[in-house]
Amino acid sequence: MTEKKAVLNVTVDESLAEEVRRAATLERTTISSVVERALRQQLAWELKRLDGIQAIEEYFEEHGYPTPEEDARAAARVAEEHRLLDEARAAMAARERAHHADGGDVA
After folding, report:
1. What are the backbone angles phi and psi of residue 64, rounded to the nearest 5°?
2. Contact 34/24 with Cβ under 8 angstroms?
3. Is the dihedral of CA 27, 29, 34, 36 positive or negative?
4. pLDDT higher than threshold 80 for residue 48
5. pLDDT tens-digit map of 27-43
6. Which 3 state secondary structure label does DSSP give 64?
7. Do residues 106 and 99 lie in contact, with contact meaning Cβ atoms separated by under 8 Å?
8. Distance between alpha carbon 15 and the CA centroid of its chain, in Å?
9. pLDDT tens-digit map of 85-106
10. What does the alpha-carbon distance between residue 51 and residue 43 come to, in Å, rounded to a whole number?
11. CA dist 62 to 13, 67, 69, Å?
12. Domain map of the chain by residue range?
């Protein structure tokens, strides 16, 4: 059985409205179908995000919020991970450039 549909009046940017119309035309479907699918997908993600934030808040309420020192240590660890990733990406790019300079293909 099909769920009863509700009517929502929304205002969006004209450029977004054009994209919705284009998607509906390309899919040979209705604007409502495009909007409903996009809204359902976005809301699923948004509700997971909000549930996660709520769970973190509940944890902090029960166990205490991080101290400034703990926040600083965590930020330093994240910065180090980013530095290591940047270093690895640079090394990979250099190897790729060297390999191409030698006339080889990157596997």
Report:
1. 100, 150
2. yes
3. negative
4. yes
5. 999 999 999 999 999 99
6. coil
7. yes
8. 22
9. 999 999 999 999 998 888 766 5
10. 12
11. 43, 15, 19
12. 10-65, 66-107
